[in-house]
Amino acid sequence: MTRASPRVVLAALLLAASAASAHDADILYSQVRRVAPEAAGAESPTSEVRQVLTLTTGTLGLLLPADADGDGTVSQADLDARRAALEVGVWDAMPLTADGRPCARTSHAALLRQTYVELSATFQCPPGPLRQTYTVLSVLPAGYRVILGSSLDGEVPGAIFADAAQPSVAIPGPGETGGEGASPVSGFGGWVSLGVSHLFEGVDHLAFLLAVLLVGGGLKRVLLLVTSFTVAHSITLGATALGWVVLDGERARWVEAAIAASIIYVAVENLVLREHRHRVLVTFLFGLVHGFGLAGTLAGYGLGDSLVTGLLGFNLGVELGQAAVVIVLLPVLRMVRRRPALHLRTVRVLSVGILAAGGYWMFERALG
After folding, report:
1. Tell me: the pLDDT tens digits for 283-322?
2. pTM > 0.90: yes or no
3. Pfam families, alphabetically (predicted)?
4. Of 36, 75, 181, 293, which is most buried with the most CB atoms under 10 A?
């Protein structure tokens, strides 16, 4: 009887587990545009404001029963059938005001795009600064954010964030870069900063990187491992952002679960294998998966005309954050490796912790 190697069995189990459902991207992207009075074509005490909100079908399903016919997928017909529910569950939960006075919603629509849902609405607002309160975040799981871009006549000055702790945000006018509690994002440097922030906020990516570095070996091998991970996730991040690879809601679920699976796999390898001859290949393959995860996050920012700038800047920011982690960890790990007994205990303890974290993420995402 042919016996499968432990590596093959372990890989098969983890890949099977990665088919479990997982979190959708925890970002909603909103763009608000106040139409200039001359563009509206009439003199009026109010002005027209247009808003577009993009989100995944999974996120929409957390807000209302979007699948009207119960066939397991959301179609344009489902969105049309849920028009009244969208008005109550989404737009009524995002009141827009101008100088403290409510804006009147005059119309709204919903379109199913290839990889997301686009909700749009038109308002009549009195003069004064705009502010929107995203009470919709109170019914979403912790960690969800709204990334809001503001524009006037097509000019986008930046972006601000809203979350459950700070759901009310001032919408900047032309020439402004943010309001109270705002985190401005403008130009190439802004995207680089977002990439760095995302890397350090992405605990699962850091856990995978730490698991790889624990048994990385010498400087040349560490550089090879980091390079393989960088090249791999840059490939899938770029391919997805450019539209060459399409991640629908179901595929995004597989990606999130596969990221957790990659962490479990590498941690188990650290515990059961003495040699890691294929670690570069393993790191490259799992780097492809992590790139899809990064792409899901980047898509939520609504790159629009900033596709090239946003893609390059965000990816560079991720690489800079990753380089900072390696620079800090590598000298410490090299000192530990000089004492084999201490190195062995360190690898075991940290790998067990990483394995537990990966298992928790897999369990959490499978139930999500």
Report:
1. 999 999 988 888 766 665 655 556 677 788 888 888 898 8
2. no
3. HupE_UreJ_2
4. 293
Contacts 24+ apart (CB under 8 A), 107-112: 108/83, 110/79, 110/80, 110/82, 110/83, 110/86, 111/76, 111/79, 112/57, 112/74, 112/75, 112/76, 112/79
| Domain that residue 269 falls in | 193-367
Is residue 258 domain-shared with residue 219, that is, in the same domain? yes
Report which residue type is found at 273: L
Q: Return the beta strands (E) in the chain as ranges.
A: 27-34, 47-55, 96-98, 101-102, 104-112, 117-125, 130-133, 145-152, 155-163, 168-171
Q: Is residue 10 part of a domain?
A: no
The total of structural domains in the chain comes to: 2
Q: Is the dihedral of CA 203, 21, 259, 353 positive or negative?
A: positive
> 6-41: buried (b, 16+ CB within 10 Å) or exposed (e) per residue?
eeeebbeebeebbebbbbbbbbbbbbbbbeeeeeee
- Tracing tokens 């247009």 back to the chain, one arrives at 50
**Where does the pLDDT of residue 181 fall: very low under 50, low under 70, confident under 90, or very high at 90 and above?**
very low
Longest dimension (CA), the chain: 85
Owner of token pair 């001032």? 170
273 and 362 in a single domain? The answer is yes
pLDDT digits (tens, 9 = 90+) for 310-366: 788 888 888 898 889 889 988 898 899 889 899 899 999 999 999 999 998 888 776
Lowest mean pLDDT: which of 4-13, 69-78, 103-112, 340-349? Answer: 4-13
241 assigned to some structural domain: yes
User: Minimal CA–CA distance to 296: which of 231, 233, 228, 357?
Assistant: 233
Nearest to 265 by CA among 8, 55, 11: 11
Tell me, yes or no, whether 87 and 225 share the same domain. Answer: no
Q: Which is more confident, 302 or 212?
A: 212
Q: Enumerate residues 6+ apart whose C-beta is below 8 A from 227.
A: none
Beta bridge partners of 54: 29, 118
CA atoms of 172 and 148, how far apart (whole Å): 10
Mark whether 207 and 150 lie in a shared domain: no
Do 144 and 211 lie in one domain? The reply is: no
